[in-house]
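Standup notes
- DV: blocked on the single-chain target, sequence here:
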Amino acid sequence: MDQPVFDHRKLGLDDVFEFACFPGISCYNLCCYDVNLVLSPYDFLRVRKALGLSSREFIEKFAELHLGDVTQLPVVSVKMQEHDFACPFLRPEGCSIYQDRPASCRTYPLARFTGKDEEGKPFEIYRIIRETHCRGHFEKRPITVRDWIKEQGLEPYHFFNDLFGEIVFACQHMDRPLSADELDLIYNACYGLEAFREFVEKNKAYLEKVGFSADDISKALAEEEELLKLGLEFLKRTIFRDHLP
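- DV (later): unblocked, structure below
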């Protein structure tokens, strides 16, 4: 695929842009080929659950696992098909996991940027990605960024990705490499939730010591989204507690 180009504009939640994607548009499905599709922990959970697979089964069948060059954190990315470089979830009629597609697929044609300004106040801006093959930019369908987020179901993705983003930030500001045991724990808390559930069951007293209530732990053991939330918060309160923004 051609390298994307970012529009110069910085959009807020109430700014308007024009875009539409639908079956029948001439470029339909072209964006699903030869993509570097990295899965955040919440992306991974949603797609894995939609397919009814364990973490290990999903990685063996559909993904690659490695350490990020910049973050040095575990990274899971989707393996494109060898014969045509298509996303393995692509079908002639479109995305077979559309209801649980990753955040990057949902957000396009926007890219989201978050952080803190010089005064320490959080900011959130969006920029439009323009790819030469995409005809959706020529569709006269105005929509605000806020309405696009709601329409694409991005709210829970933003919540979990912001939690994970704090961990990425903290890792980049550590003055030492992560140990093998820490990397295993990070992987389990983010992606290997079956193993992390066992960790929670065996370490309830420790979890309470670092600030989780019995109700937090009970919810995490009952529901995977809550388990992922607890896992990300656990990493923030332990391994990365001295390096958070």
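- Follow-up: The first strand starts at residue 5 and ends at 6.
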